[in-house]
């Protein structure tokens, strides 16, 4: 097994092509791979389909890609927030497509994609506008929607620690959409605060095994006052 470390976030995203589907981990600012997102904004790939829990909670998240005219479709649960004005403007102009997905359904669609399950039924969203046009089926007297799995060409995720093979450990709320997204992309790029030698991570601590991670980028945890921030 080879080492997967890249020298920089810019190098790690350099081969991304126009039209790619990108999964971006994080919940608000927690677990957000902001260095990778910034590198992609610099790289400039366009016509992206971006899957993320939210886009507007922090300025260095998916909102930055939208403002940079790199996104043609966004699939998310929470499209509002202090940095969502650019999304609203583009929706009004018809230059971007928005698909809102209930949060649990979004997580399960990604998990299904990683597990090789093409679709599943869920009662969430039935009898609402979110269910319009979707195939339905009744189970035990309750209407269910057929939801399609989500897979990506790339996934940007954030972890606290990795070894050089790409086994990942997350810190607290950093463990949100990141683990499921790691399984559901052809190329998963992990932004981590620390890379250690093989064998230094207790196997019981590993959440994402290295088989799901193709590239690693180490970034510095930053300080706010005297608190070292890893999320």
Automatic annotation (TrEMBL):
<keyword id="KW-0808">Transferase</keyword>
<dbReference type="Pfam" id="PF01144">
    <property type="entry name" value="CoA_trans"/>
</dbReference>
<comment type="similarity">
    <text>Belongs to the 3-oxoacid CoA-transferase subunit A family.</text>
</comment>
<dbReference type="GO" id="GO:0008410">
    <property type="term" value="F:CoA-transferase activity"/>
</dbReference>
<dbReference type="InterPro" id="IPR012792">
    <property type="entry name" value="3-oxoacid_CoA-transf_A"/>
</dbReference>
<dbReference type="InterPro" id="IPR004165">
    <property type="entry name" value="CoA_trans_fam_I"/>
</dbReference>
<protein>
    <submittedName>
        <fullName>3-oxoacid CoA-transferase subunit A</fullName>
    </submittedName>
</protein>
<dbReference type="InterPro" id="IPR037171">
    <property type="entry name" value="NagB/RpiA_transferase-like"/>
</dbReference>
<dbReference type="InterPro" id="IPR004163">
    <property type="entry name" value="CoA_transf_BS"/>
</dbReference>
